[in-house]
Amino acid sequence: MEVKAELLLAAFPAGPRTAPILQLREPLSFWGGVDPATGRLIDPRSIDHDKDLVGRIALIHELRGSSSASSVLLELIHAGRTPTAIIVAKPDAILAVAAIVGREMGWTVPPILRLDVDDLERLPDGAPATVFEDGMVRLG
Amino acid sequence: MLTLSIAEQAMLDGREGPAAALALRVIADAGRMMGASELVTIESAHIDGCLYHGEAGVLFAERLVHDGGRVAVPSTLNVGALDLLHRDRERLSPETRMMAHRLAQAYVDLGCRQTWTCSPYQAGHRPTFGSHVAWGESNAVAFCNSVLGARTNRYGDFLDICAAISGRAPLMGLHRDAARRATILIDAMGLEPDFLAADIAYPILGAWLGREVGEAVAAFVGLGTPGEDRLKALGAAAASTGAVGLFHVVGSTPEAPTIAAATQGAPPERIIRLDHAMLQEAWRGLSTAEGRPGAPISGVAIGSPHLSAAELCLLDRLLGERRCTVPLYACTGRHSLREVGKALSERLATRGVEIVADTCVVVTPILRDTSGLIVTNSGKFAHYVPSNTGHEVIFAGLETCVDSAVAGRFLPGDQAWR
C-alpha cells in the first residue's frame, strides 16, 4: 500500500527515510509532552505516555499547546533524536520552523509531510514504511 | 506562490546583512509552507525563544548575533530560565545556568527589551487595534488578538525572532479578517451569575474552550465584561488545553461589540449552550489528584500568566497577617514588582511568599520539594505542572490556594460549584 502525502518540508540531507510507524492519535504538545533530551513522550495524562519518537515515522493527528514546541524539536534535531519523519494532519508553522532553522544550521532534519486524517488512520501502528522525497509513503 | 516586495528581495540578497537575510529566509520558507502569498510588515514582536531548552537554541541565537542581527521593531522578551532578580533560586547545574545566561545575553544583544515576562501586555507592550505584530507565547498571543485586537499568529520560537529581525511575517491566518471570524457561538447565559462573579470561573471556561474548540475561533455570549486579568486567565488556559489564538467575548473584546460583529455577519457554524455539567468535566481535568480535604501539600504556585500588580495586591489582602507554612510561589514580572513597590514584596516575603520574577516554576526547576502535591489557581500551571515538574496538581481558587499555603494542607473553601 502507498499513499501520496503533501511534502511540507524536505528532509535535509535529501533522501528517502524508512522506519516503523507510530500512531499518535491524542493531541500532542511538544513542550511539556516530549523530553527534549531523549525524544520520549512525558505527559502522564496521555495514552501515548512513555512512547519514543526517535526512529519512528510519527503520525501526529493533532498538535496542541505551547509555542515552545519549536525549541523542543530543534533540540531533538541537534541531538539527533528526532522522529525519522513527521506526518501531520494540518500544516504547522511551529514545528516547521524548527526544521527550517535546523537546516540553516546544517543539522540533519526529518521530512515533514501532511496527510488527511482518514489517510493517517489507514497507516497501521508499528508497520515499517518508507517516506520518499516526493512525499510518497509506502508500507513495507 | 509567495511574492516578495523589492525591499524584501533585497534583504534576502543580503543588502541588510547576513542575519536579516537568514531571518527573512526562515520567514519566507515558513510562509511558503503555510501557503502565504505575501509577507506583512509588523510593528512589534514578543519573543518566546529566550527560554533555555538546550544548546541548539543558544547556537542559533548566537549565530544571529554573530551575523550582525538586530531587531527591526520594538521587541519584548518572554520568561527565561533564570530569576535575574533573585539569584540562584533555580536548581540548575552551573553548566545549564551558564548556557541560560548565554541565551539571555544573545537576545539582549539582538536588541530585545528585558521584560522577561509572559504578560508583556501588562508591562507596557500594547500594540494598537488592528496592527500587525509577531508574538510568541501562547497566552500572550491569545491576549494580543482577543483583548487588544492586534493581529498575530502563534509564532513559535525562532519564527518570533526572525520576524523581529526582518520586520516581516507571513500574511496569513489571524493577520487576515476572514480567520478572525467567530465560527462557534458559545451561549453562557445558562451559567450561574455567582459562578461568573468568581475568578475561578475563567481558567475553567478557558480549559473547557481549548478542549472543545481546538484552534477554532469562538465567541462567548453572556460573560458580561470580565476584566483583563480574567480574560488573561481564560486565554492562557484555552491556549494550553487547545491551540486557541483568538476568542471573542461579545460586549467586551474589541472585535465583538455585537454577535454580528464577532461572526462578521455570517451565521455561526455551531452554537453551544454551556451548562455547569460541561464545565465540571473541564474543572476535574485540571487536577490530577482528587484533592482530599486536609491532604498534605508541598506548595502552592500562582502566576501563570505572570501576576499583575492588582493580583499581587489581592494576594497580600487574602494572606493578611498570616504566614505560609509551605512555600507559596508567586510568579510575576519585574514590571509588576516595580508597580507594587518594595514594601509590598518584602511584606509578602516575610510571610512565606516566594516571589519568582523573570521566570516561572514550570519552565525552570524552582519548586523545593521535587514531588508531592501542588495547589494552583492557574489553568496553565494546572496543565503543565504534572509533565514539567512531576508533581500532582489540584486546581482551586486563590482563596483556597492561600488558605492551603498557610495550613500546609489542602483546605478547599471554594468548591461549591464542583
UniProtKB/TrEMBL annotation, chain A:
Swiss-Prot/TrEMBL keywords: Lyase
Molecular-function GO terms, alphabetical: lyase activity
Keyword Nucleotide-binding part of the UniProt annotation: no
Secretion signal span: none
Domain of life: Bacteria
PANTHER family (alphabetical): DUF521 DOMAIN PROTEIN (AFU_ORTHOLOGUE AFUA_6G00490) (PTHR36577)
Protein name per UniProt: DUF126 domain-containing protein
Organism: Sphingomonas chungangi
UniProtKB/TrEMBL annotation, chain B:
Classification via InterPro entries: PMDh-L-like_dom
Keywords, in A-Z order: Iron, Lyase
Gene Ontology terms, MF aspect: lyase activity
Sequence ranges assigned to domain Phosphomevalonate dehydratase large subunit-like in this UniProt record: 3-403
Any one Pfam family match given in the protein's UniProt record, by short name: AcnX
Protein known as: Aconitase X catalytic domain-containing protein
